[in-house]
Amino acid sequence: MTSATVLVADDDAAIRTVLNQALSRAGYDVRITSNAATLWRWVAGGEGDIVITDVIMPDENAFDLLPRIKKARPELPVLVMSAQNTFMTAIKASEKGAYDYLPKPFDLTELLAIVKRALSEPKQKAPELEDDQQDGMPLVGRSAAMQEIYRVLARLMQTDLTLMITGESGTGKELVARALHDYGKRRNGPFVAINMAAIPRDLIESELFGHEKGAFTGAQNRSTGRFEQAEGGTLFLDEIGDMPMDAQTRLLRVLQQGEYTTVGGRTPIRTDVRIVAATNKDLKNLINQGLFREDLYYRLNVVPLRLPPLRDRSEDIPDLVRHFVTRAEKEGLDVKRFDAEAIEAMKSYPWPGNVRELENLIRRLTALYPQDVITREIIDTELRPDIPDSPLDKVAGRSGPVTISQAVEENMRTYFSGFGEDLPPPGLYNRVLAELEYPLILAVLTATRGNQIKAAEVLGLNRNTLRKKIRELGVSVYRSARTN
């Protein structure tokens, strides 16, 4: 049997040598060039069974060459490599018809596995999509952690597979869902988001599926639900772990049968939406507690995608800072420059609020500090609560220890400023109370070393009520040895 021929195009001599050695050892015939013109001559002449090419070539960009390759030989798989490593690089590679995308530096074992898979699969022509504006990237970062996110998204763009996004609060789950929609096959349809934690539990089914006139008290007119609003597009179910069990049952039925009925309605309605779900909770733990349906979990978790916390991708902080500074400038705020030590201070901070916390910090700095250059001292002042007299303290006109009321007021001010001219989604009262409950109960359990009887006494709660809240909120019960 004749071995497959791999066509390699890369301007870097060291990479050409490495690829030649690795592919030859794997038993492939290898033809190598440093320019796009030679690569195109080979492809046009019918040579090669697979192409491996860098994006940036001395005579032509691979993205300009790819459409010609796919038109001349649609069955020829093309593996694109790039040192630029941005979200748009991965997406553009997918849109131009690349079989796969690998960021540099790449893993040779992975590359060989991709080559083997590409050669063994039936050859299909990838659909060509329109070019998109490259002005603003929806996702920012070039870290290894983000590269895997980009690659998964690029592979999902032309599918309708259900995606489950997990990750801590503030990691950008809705941004990922929007990027998947905006650059995917449903881009011309609506993107509809619903936050399960922000809707009263008795109204979730009506919000999702709509209701008929007279279906319940107050239903004076027929109302369309989010499924109907998202028809032909993407429905983003945020905080899916907060969905009550009865609504979970109805959602499972929709996913299984592809149809639903409105609240109070009898006629089934066919639905054509892509489902993207997200949560910051451990759904498997909720399943064990009987709070989430296991069969629904597997229906939603077709493609799992976990977003890394910012502390695990600190090398992305400089890019993120530049991105948020540019956004602030477009909103009319002053342009700031961050010195190297300020960047290092941010890179060493654990960021419990993740990217959202970083964005809020940049907005505060650009709005409240008159300095053109942000220094490490300023960053330390804002990120370390033990340093007094930050500009926020002066603006609020307070001195001394911050009370709980003052802290909540400051947090709400920052929270509302993040929406600009818009307002936050409904249900803020219950949402804020729920967010206060978790740290309150955790702090008391920590202080009582996990003694729930003492914790219930301190909180003024019945012990059974405390146990129920610990289970519902997912509080990790603190225990430690007593120190003398």
UniProtKB/TrEMBL annotation:
Residues 139-367 form the Sigma-54 factor interaction domain. Keywords: Activator, ATP-binding, Cytoplasm, DNA-binding, Nitrogen fixation, Nucleotide-binding, Phosphoprotein, Repressor, Transcription, Transcription regulation, Two-component regulatory system. It comes from the Bacteria. CDD domains: AAA (cd00009), REC_RcNtrC-like (cd19928). Gene3D superfamilies: 1.10.8.60, 3.40.50.2300, Homeodomain-like, P-loop containing nucleotide triphosphate hydrolases. It is found in: Cytoplasm. Its main location: cytoplasm. Member of the two-component regulatory system NtrB/NtrC, which controls expression of the nitrogen-regulated (ntr) genes in response to nitrogen limitation. Phosphorylated NtrC binds directly to DNA and stimulates the formation of open promoter-sigma54-RNA polymerase complexes. This is DNA-binding transcriptional regulator NtrC. It comes from Rhizobium aquaticum.
